[in-house]
Predict the structure.
Amino acid sequence: MKIKFDWGTGITIFIALFLLANVFVIYKSFQQKNDLVTEEYYPQGLEYQKQIDRFAKANALSSPISISEDQQGLVITYPGELKGKDISGEVVFFRPSDENADFYDRIRFDTSMIQRVPIEKFIKGKYVAKFFWKMDGKEYANENTFRVNK
């Protein structure tokens, strides 16, 4: 049996390929992971002005918190005003593309105002470091974006 290839056959083949492409796109879209930035977004929205004030206090410090990478790991350098103060806080290492790579660490630094974080805790890619701390009865917050190139 020989199939005659005319415009009707061409349209039928085109529609069949179009439908197969749509089925493939729908299948792939169900495989895509959709992580929320945070599960509790509504209560965090209510605290927004307080957070703005925390960021403003941190920006008023003499120098910003800086992040760099060396062979041993991540190097976080804190402003000099924090030296000798009673500070309690944490840093959240947030990976926008994979919530399983997020982790917390407490803020701790040596006499040279440096905190080291082992590079083994990170996977290659973009991170956002979110700092939250209390100093002299005031709350501070800062945020830095960086890439891990290991």
